[in-house]
Amino acid sequence: NAEPDSFAQRFAKHHGPSACAMAFRVRDAAYAYRRALELGATPGPQNAGPMELNIPCIEGIGGSLIYLVDRYGGPTIYDVDFRPVAPPAEPREAGLTVIDHLTHNVARGNMDKWAGFYAKLFNFRQIRYFDIEGRHTGLFSRAMTSPCGKIRIPINESQDEKSQIEEYLREYHGEGIQHIALATEDIYRTVDTLRSHGVAFQDTPDTYYERIEARV
């Protein structure tokens, strides 16, 4: 979002490259919004510009926003708020299908707070709990999922001051969405396709494989 003085721009100036918002598709956005406020949610900004949809939202992790969308079929928010651009002559899809999960990194002592946030407001439930101790550091994680199972949010908390989670919190200036995982039909073809388009990938750290059996 390159619009000057927008929420996205202000968020990026504070956090750097980041996910400033996400949206949940619900059956009735107005009701879901009212119910969330009744349960203690903080309302997000409601200042749609000319020709923009006024989509209800609440404050989420690290001051990001959670939008509530209830459009099914017919014109979507993309038809109303965006102008389409011409596709490439020969578009190459990479095999990506859906968002698998959005991992949150939180400060020590806040994992239960944010797990409770999703459980109370959106009836999420915990599907897994991890207590992972690596060679040099460790973490706790609660994997939360929506009632339909389509939205999965692992919430990670460090066990000490040396972890990648603590480094993220310092560099990001707070809690937030640490990464977005995408599902693919064929991971090898997806990686090859994205690399051919100039997408750079991180090397997998050795610590990823420590106690990997505890995560699968």
TrEMBL record:
Q: Which PROSITE patterns match?
A: VOC (PS51819)
Q: Which cofactor does it need?
A: Fe cation
Query: What is one Pfam family matched by this protein?
Result: Glyoxalase
Which Gene3D superfamilies does the protein's record reference?
2,3-Dihydroxybiphenyl 1,2-Dioxygenase, domain 1 (3.10.180.10)
Key words of the record: Dioxygenase, Iron, Metal-binding, Oxidoreductase, Pyruvate, Repeat
Query: Residue ranges of the VOC domain?
Result: 1-71, 98-216
Q: Does the keyword Metal-binding apply?
A: yes
Name its GO BP terms in alphabetical order.
Answer: L-tyrosine catabolic process
The record's GO molecular-function terms, alphabetically, read: 4-hydroxyphenylpyruvate dioxygenase activity; metal ion binding
Does the entry feature the keyword Plastid, yes or no? no
Task: Identify its protein family.
Answer: Belongs to the 4HPPD family.
What name appears for this protein in its UniProt entry?
A: 4-hydroxyphenylpyruvate dioxygenase
**Source organism phylogeny:** unclassified sequences, metagenomes, ecological metagenomes
